Amino acid sequence: MGYGAIWLVIGLPLLGFLVQALLGKFVIDRLGAKRGKWTMGLLAVAPIAIAFAIGAMLTANLASLPADQRHFVLTLYIWITLQSLSIPFEVVIDPLSLTMVLIITGIGALIHLYATGYMAEDKDYPRFFCYLNLFIACMLVLVLGNNLALLFIGWEGVGLCSYLLIGFWYKDLANAKAANKAFIVNRIGDWGLTLGMFMLVCVLAGASGSLTNGGDNRWLSYDVILPNAIALLKDNPGIATAIALLIFVGACGKSAQFPLYLWLPDAMAGPTPVSALIHAATMVTAGVFLLNRLHVLFELSPVASAIVACVGAFTALFAALVAFGQTDIKKVLAYSTVSQLGFMFIACGAGGYWAGMFHVTTHAFFKALLFLGSGAVIYAMAHNQDLRNYGNLKKYLPITCWTMFIGFLAIAGIPGLSGFFSKEAILGHALAGTFAEWDGIRLGYVAGWVGLFVAALTAMYMTRMTWLTFFGGKEQWRSIPAAAHDHHDDHSHHAQHAEHEGHGPDVHGFFYTEEEITRNRDMEDHGHHHELDASHTPKEVPPSMWIPLVALAVLSLGGGFLLYNGGLFEKWLYPTGLALLPPGQVQAHPHDIPLVGLSIGAALLGLLAGYAVYRKGLPGKEGWDMAKWNPFRREALVQFGYDHAMVEAADEGGGALARGLWRFDSGVIDGIVNAVGGLTKGLGDLFRMLQTGYVRAYALLMLLGGIGLLGWFLYAMNRVGAGGHG
Amino acid sequence: MEHSTGFGLLSLVTFLPLIGAILLMFVPQEFSKLVKYLAFGVAAATFAASLVVVSRFEGQTYHLQMMETMPWIPALGIQYKLGIDGISVWLVALTTFLTLISVWFSFYVEKRIKTYMVMMLMLESAMLGVFLAQDMILFYTFFEASLIPMALLIYIWGGENRNYAAVKFFIYTFAGSIFMLLGMIVLHNLHLSATGVSTFDMVAIQDSVATGTLWKGAMQLQPWIFWSFAVAFMIKCPMFPFHTWLPDAHVEAPTAGSVILAGVLLKMGTYGFLRFCLPLFPDVIRAQVVWIMALAVVGILYGALVAAVQPDVKKLVAYSSVAHMGFVMFGIFSLTHDGLVGGAYQQLSHGISTGALFLLIGLIYERRHTRLFKDFGGLKAQMPIYAAIFLIIMLSSVGLPGLNGFVGEFLAMLGGFQASFAGAFGLNVWFAVLAGFGVILAAVYLLIMFMRMFYGPNENPENRRLRDLKPWEIAMAGSLVLFAVWGGLYPNTFLKPMEASLGAVRMMALNPVGARPSYADLGMEIDSKGNLVQVEPRKRDGELGQFTTIREIAPANFHFPYPKDDDERVAAR
Fold first, then answer.
1. Cβ(A112)–Cβ(A128) under 8 Å?
2. Is A194 on the interface with B (CB under 8 A)?
3. Predicted structure pTM score
């Protein structure tokens, strides 16, 4: 198969998006809800699955080539061409991009399949898959694009899909607000990314004529940036650091690092398959991908790398602590995602780029598994997400329980499972590397120790989540206090009668008549949620939902070892090592005995501590009565006040500023305009015996003033002319 | 004096709407259907004619094309002269397209429909004249002529406070253009004293600027005349702090008026900058850049912040225009190639996306007779197609890559960053950093707008009776969506024909005497029989120099972010 098939990989999900958008409603109306949804579900899953198959074949092709030939650039058309800038629509096929393609389409296809079950009851079924297919297409453009502008199309495109899917259940305004927050916080990151891009253009365009590959002004293409960056920036660490950090700001936004992480927990408002696909497995790892793609720029700047490692370490720690205070099962997983992303940035900062990507891969396996598992639990528990209502679910949901248990062991870092290998590689790089330093302080090393500590915390809070959900013997929902009821959007407002408060007869046919309204209301399906109550009996989820769970469990179990064994993954991504850094500076042997011991020790310690506390299910001081909580947990629940402070500052502060400016605008700026107008009007009144209408009065005055000025100009010019000639 | 060429295609495009307006006057008021269809037919014919112009347009050269020259008031050196180049070609097409859409929407208008349509068509002629006139007095005439129908549209068909808004709009822009007229007269007189020829011909005046004769001996007047033009165009754009007429005018104007106002009239300001301020003041423009850029950045942030707290959708979009036009100016006055092209492209994008936003707001206003956020919410479930179209247009306005808004904004920001980063014209990198915040704020106010209109529960009982868009409304709004997508995915269609002219304008502004391109250097002459013949031009297009980016504008003491000897080192590798 030729590499041109890559266009199919992008094209199929895009086609799927169009099919869902244009035909979805029609098909469901035609075939009826059940068959229609089945058809549309098939049409949603198939493009992704076929894209995965093509991607796998291309990967096999590429792997059969010698390592130094695994790089192809294909151009579809020229997107923007100017005399000074050229941005083709071009894709790059190399190990990094194909790895991401496999993750996106592979995990994506499984999650699409899962979603056909999870969303089966939803009225807006095609709209969901329309967004989801568009997301896959955008994500593929992000990873396959051969220039930063194309990456940016995908980057903002996935942000858009994330926005649309977080706000999928838009009738609840809280979801819409979470969606806005995600988009806007990401825009802050994008601001950094664009400035970084611009700075790169300045550097490259300023050196035009002396570049390799740069003859056609493709300043943003990787095959122009990467070969030239070292020569251009080696002696300018300041510029290199600035570019690297600006790009890292973008990565912080998309990959939810401190201080921009705060959109991700809110993003859990979206349906759970979305959380698994976008907010755990793929989109949020785009920042790590970007750092891998542009690793040369970060290699050029130890300072920027040190900052990357520190931000990663701090985020990992912070999010892990916050996770202890969460009672919503999805929120626990969300903070755990933030924390694991922090691990990936520790790796990148310490120069272990491949380890970062490795963790992206294994994390995609086990975090998708955990999220889908949590979705199954939520599905079985009548859409109740509170851990405090669960307990002993292993009895009712055996498949979900034991697949999720594998995911739990993997994220906790138990030897042999996938998470162990990637975490091990990260900590190995961080603790051995001497690269990421600032002012002689080996910040990468510090980050490594923090990471080790967080590994123990991870094992502990994941134990908490797992035991509260599946074990402990107590079935908490049997004793639900009244306050615990989730509020679903009630249909009571349907009862309100729409009164057409007349603006005269409806001549244009803008409004439904009474009969039509009644008919529409009957056609609306009242997908009735029943509340979780004491008599509820959870049921195992349908096969379309547990098959993906099993597949992901297998990957979480064996995927890490397969990829790690013999350095397979590292040699695939970085066959010749890094561009600048010698291996000795970034990497000792990751599986040195003391490190293995430390990291296994951390995992077991966390696990045992968690088991000790939660083996009997929900402890009394973590229950519904918040007054009994210890202060740490209470603070952790609200992210130690950080989110509140930021939102308050933006909402109140920004709002006050904007309202102040508005008052200034209408008071001062417009006031001056009106005052001038009033003055003229006053003068015009003096001329009232000559002129009556306002407009004419103004015009006359203007004319007089104009003539006066004109006279002055002519006078001045005559003097100039006279001076010139004289 | 040049020979007369007679009327041609450009005259046809310009005056077709006016002829249609005159025809309409003879249709009795009662035949309102006929009036509407006739007006629509005229607008469609004009659009078709403008497409012929576009198809005949030659994008390789910066020169004015399809020139038509005739004497008008020879005693004062005033000609009837039309011509088109890369700066104006898409603005002409935008004008005819948006007018067509506006006339189409105006099928909803009932009040005094004949006068209304006459005004619309007269307005179209005036706008097209502005973009095509190549004689300063002719330009001025059209520039002022466009005020009258617009002011009347607001005055007769406007909202509650229409009197105030119409008068303010008229007086404010009129006051600004007085200064422009002054500047034109001074240019005429300088040209007269320098060459002995009395003319308002923009080609001749630009030529004498390019050769350095016009300003010789009057150097100290140059900044004054620059600002006399600049003030007129800053009011028209509008730039902070001259923008306050805009929200008032928009809120009061009928929908079609708002579409035209935002889509086309504002572009007269930026067009004026490109046509007059850049080519004619090469000796002083560098010193003025920093002021204009500062106002552009303030406008970007200020417009966005004020937009975010508006209670009225239309006012929000009006303030967003201040921010978006700030981006246009930010790109143009970076005086980099990327920035100029980006700014010019952003004009078109803004015309499409903001025009479409006003159109969509008009569609809901026709139904609900309100534009206040508090009356809306949850419309997405009620009107899914309307919501989808609104979403795409909103995203185009946000500048989402893949839609047209991104291309212009990206290039304008890139150009602005290059100039700022290099420290050219007294700028520094903070200009670009702050302008970048405007991109974040654009997402803030537009997403808030979308949320407040479409998300949440649909609680207002009146909104629960709303039907979705009708097929013809979908076609009307969809055609704008088509251009938003086209402009985002294949912007080269629109970029290529503009580039040569914008590049030449940039060199007119920045190059020293002798290296400035001249419109008069046509390589064409009219022989005694009135035919165009090819002659050897003084300078060919290709010899105008490279469209380089950052090196050319950086001050001499700027240290490039790489070592000086780097060229050799890279070459040796």
1. no
2. yes
3. 0.90
